[in-house]
Design brief:
The protein has about 300 residues and is mainly beta. The protein contains three helices and 22 strands. The strands form six sheets. Strands 2, 5, 6, 9, 10 and 11 form a six-stranded mixed beta sheet that branches. The protein has a five-stranded antiparallel beta sheet with strand order 16-17-18-19-22, with no helix packed on it. Strands 12-13-14-15 form a four-stranded antiparallel beta sheet, with no helix packed on it. A hairpin with a 5-residue loop joins strand 20 and strand 21. It starts with a helix and ends in a 35-residue tail after the last helix.
Length: about 300
């Protein structure tokens, strides 16, 4: 069984006829990612067989999966092979599309280049189909702020410690601000949020309130600022956009130990939504464990039962 799964992931032999009958394509929004941020691949499968196609897991292999290798040809096994996919029916000429986050599924946090393909196994015809490969690179940002803080007793994970890192990363069209929250003891990464663009001449302000909740104010465009409030387990508590009034705005401590934005005018949420950056990932994308040589023992770290749900 194990050898068959390895064959499925890493050494598929495909015929031109099989490829013509089922068209598999993948797409990435960009090719450069910060370590541990969500890496979402969009997969489309089109049925060109001329008949309805029923795809279901077989004893030999699951009907859907990915093949990932380093650019020097070293294959990467998924974090666990214990998973299953719900069966699906694709009508003749029909197409399905799914978006899947690869970060929790494969150990791709190490810096360097990778190559990814999506694989479809049609058990009824004993055929494998694969997408054209795409390459991406994992790198790291430039740290601006790093601090280790405790988790309050009344919060999930109370008594633990969190490493908070704020960093910038240069993409082809802009410089982006990232926030990573990591368990200081176990290494579990609770989030690597891409908070949005930051102008080159603006230094973001980061503050920790009485409960160590994170408050960040960043300059996203001339006289435009984005405020984020994020919990120690990666949950996004608030996101608001402001326009500068006269002087540069900032974060001011309140009487209850929190922080608020001063020197700026809050933009109407409906207007801001139309101009907003891509929303941050949901809690289902976290936590992501650090790679280890052992198999996954924590149920939270396991590969989802249905890959197409990610």
């Amino acid at each position: 069984m194990k050898s068959l799964l390895c064959l499925f992931f890493f050494t598929l032999v495909l015929t031109p006829l099989a490829q013509a009958q089922l068209q598999v394509n993948i797409a990435l929004k960009r090719s450069l990612y910060v370590s541990y941020e969500p890496l979402v691949v969009n997969v489309t499968v089109q049925n060109l067989t001329g008949n309805s196609l029923h795809l279901a897991d077989a004893e030999a292999a699951p009907w859907f999966g990915f093949q990932i290798e380093t650019l020097d040809g070293r294959p990467l096994a998924p974090r666990t092979s214990r998973y299953s996919n719900a069966p699906i029916m694709i009508p003749a000429g029909g197409k399905i599309s799914r978006s899947i986050n690869l970060t929790p599924l494969f150990p791709i946090a190490e810096f360097g280049g990778y190559r990814v393909r999506a694989n479809i196994h049609d058990a009824s015809r004993s055929q494998f189909h694969t997408s054209p490969p795409l390459t991406f690179e994992i790198t790291e940002g430039r740290p601006l702020f790093k601090k280790t803080v405790g988790v309050p007793a009344d919060q999930p994970g109370g008594g633990g410690m969190r490493d908070i890192t704020l960093m910038t990363h240069r993409l082809p069209a802009s410089t982006q601000l990232y926030l990573r929250i990591q368990d200081a003891k176990t290494g579990t990464v609770y989030c690597t949020h891409r908070l949005g663009r930051i102008v080159s001449y603006g230094t973001p302000q980061i503050e920790l309130d009485a409960k160590n909740t994170i408050h960040i104010l960043q300059n996203v465009a001339p006289k435009a600022f984005l405020y984020s409030r994020i919990g120690l387990n990666g949950q996004v508590l608030d996101r608001k956009t402001y326009n500068q009034l006269s002087k540069r705005p900032g974060l001011k401590k309140t009487a209850d130990g929190g922080y608020q934005v001063f020197g700026a005018l809050l933009i109407d949420p409906n207007e801001a939504a139309a101009k907003a950056e891509q929303p941050l990932p949901s809690l289902s994308d976290r936590p992501v464990p650090l790679p280890s040589g052992s198999d996954i023992s924590n149920p939270e770290d396991a590969r989802p039962k249905n890959l197409l749900s990610r």
